[in-house]
Amino acid sequence: MSLLNEILKYNQTFIEEKMYEAYATTKFPDKKLVILTCMDTRLVELLHKAMNMKNGDVKVVKNAGAILTHPFGSIMRSLLIAVYELKADEVYVIGHHDCGMSAIESDQVLEKMKLRGIKQDTLDIIQNAGINLDEWLTGFDSVEQSVEHSVNMIRNHPLMAGEIPVHGLVIDPVTGKLDLVVNGYENVKANDQT
């Protein structure tokens, strides 16, 4: 049985037995916060348990490394929508130790792309269009610095309300221990409506 068929078969049982009822909530986060975190498989449940969060408590935005790379990309848009439309009053950027993005080297990723059928011509067209693939595919050296960078981009974004605290933390993907990198309460700006 393929993985897709396995998932669909389980889903049918999930619906028939009304298992979804245990997860009923609204689209608004009960704890009024949004988290930007990594897509690492070890964090799927651990992060929520380590923070005492349950279904419905929080909005979660995930990407590789919890890195905000573009001030007007989809990650920042999601954070802004969480604040302005979905009633989140705080933002948490949570990276983790032993992150795969800390070991990413663009040349290795590009070689793996070629091995899976991406042509050098395609890569050249992208590079010639002004996309620096080496920069785009490079990871980070320090998870703490990466978290701090993302926090600063969010906090200083021209569309982010100054009264929204933006916190930065790093989680241990084995134990769930959280280390504080940036206390967002210390950097909250007065609400400037001018």
TrEMBL record:
Highest taxon above the source species: Bacteria
What is its cofactor? Zn(2+)
Which residues, by range, are in coiled-coil regions? none
Alphabetized, the UniProt keywords read: Lyase, Metal-binding, Zinc
SMART domains assigned to the protein according to its UniProt record, in alphabetical order: Pro_CA
Catalysed reaction, written as an equation = hydrogencarbonate + H(+) = CO2 + H2O
Give its E.C. classification number. 4.2.1.1
List the CDD domains.
Answer: beta_CA_cladeD
Q: Name one GO molecular function term.
A: carbonate dehydratase activity
In the record, the note on similarity to other proteins reads:
Belongs to the beta-class carbonic anhydrase family.
Official protein name in the record: carbonic anhydrase
